[in-house]
Design goal:
Blueprint: E1 3-5, E2 11-15, E3 20-24, E4 30-40, E5 43-52, E6 56-62, E7 68-76, E8 78-83, E9 91-94, E10 97-103, E11 106-112, E12 117-126, E13 148-154, H1 157-170, H2 178-202, H3 209-224, H4 232-239, H5 243-254, H6 258-275, H7 280-286, H8 292-303, H9 307-314
Parallel strand pairs: 1-6
Antiparallel strand pairs: 2-3, 3-4, 4-5, 5-12, 6-11, 7-10, 7-12, 8-9, 8-11, 10-13
Helix pairs in contact: 1-2, 3-4, 3-5, 7-8
Length: 315
């Protein structure tokens, strides 16, 4: 059994001396806490340390008018964030990597495994600060459809040096050197945004007509073979294109990853099948799910209600 944690289970403790707030999870889950500190309006830092004594899921719900940028530095272990939007890919935060993610309004859950120690450091930026800090993403939550990983890269030695100093200052018992903390946060943010800009300059997907035709063929292959256990390698081999070009192409033409595109195809066909008389088990098999329960879960995440609910409405 997997324990579920919601916002009502979290205990918040203010620490006025150093301006931090500590959030504690129930003791039954192990030693799990998050320390948060506001650097300036619109910019905060957070250090989380989780050592789970059992498997658990932490529910997350964001309701805000501003978009958010999260720069996460994995120090040890690995955690996974799953958004309830079926179009969103899972976000993986792993040790020795820096992950840049944008959020709007969203619901999801973070998954933690028993016995694993997970330490992470985050810099959190609100949309109101995007223009001032030259952050190249939409600043309003309504313009961010679902959480999106913008960058995932190995942490450099220079970054680790900044991080160690910043965490030393953050966990000092004295409210010392606030200007140095501020500078370190901006240095870390500037470094990652520069890396992002370099990656974008290298990524110039100038598609030839033959590439566009192959991407369209890839979608047709997915439609024709949706009942089979399709993999990225299957699609690439069938249409004669590399995995990187397939990913670039589906993003450019359909604004979806290959995984999201296949899911959209399956869910739209599932709706059609259910509305034309197929039951849940028949529909699940038709669109490529071996187990009806897995299909029902995917359908519910995609549409917000179960296939059985759709059938009941139809009647």
């Amino acid at each position: 059994m997997t324990y579920r944690v919601n916002q009502d289970d979290i205990i918040s403790v203010d620490q006025p001396l150093n301006g931090r707030q500590r959030q504690l999870l129930p003791e039954a889950l192990g030693a799990c806490y998050v320390d948060r500190e506001v650097i300036e309006p619109g910019i905060a830092i957070a250090y989380s340390s989780y050592t789970a004594s059992q498997n658990f899921v932490e529910e997350s719900q964001i309701e805000t008018s501003e978009a958010r940028l999260s720069l996460t530095f994995g120090l040890s272990g690995q955690s996974i964030y799953q958004c309830k939007s079926a179009l969103a890919d899972d976000l993986v935060f792993s040790a020795n990597h820096a992950t840049l993610t944008t959020f709007g309004n969203s619901e999801g859950e973070r998954i933690y495994q028993e016995g694993q120690k997970i330490d992470q450091f985050r810099i959190l930026i609100s949309g109101s600060s995007f223009d001032r800090l030259s952050i190249p993403f939409p600043k309003e939550a309504k313009d961010v459809a679902y959480p999106t990983q913008q960058q995932h890269a190995l942490t450099s030695p220079n970054t680790l040096h900044y991080l160690k100093r910043l965490m030393t200052l953050m966990h000092s018992n004295q409210p010392e050197r606030p200007l140095e903390k501020h500078i370190l946060v901006l240095n870390l943010l500037s470094e990652q945004l520069s890396l992002l800009q370099e990656d974008r300059q290298q990524y110039q997907p100038a598609f030839h007509h033959r590439d566009e035709a192959k991407i369209i063929s890839a979608k047709q292959y997915m439609i024709q073979n949706m009942s089979l256990p399709i993999t990225l390698a299957n699609v690439c081999q069938a249409v004669g294109i590399s995995e990187s070009k397939l990913k670039q192409g589906t993003k450019a033409i359909y604004q979806l990853s290959p995984h999201q595109l296949l899911l959209q195809i399956r869910m739209e066909k599932a709706w059609e099948q259910l509305m034309t008389g197929s039951n849940v088990s028949q529909t699940a098999y038709f669109v490529g799910y071996q187990h009806a329960s897995n299909f029902s879960a995917a359908f519910s995440r995609y549409y917000g209600f179960s296939p059985k609910s759709l059938l009941a409405q139809k009647q």
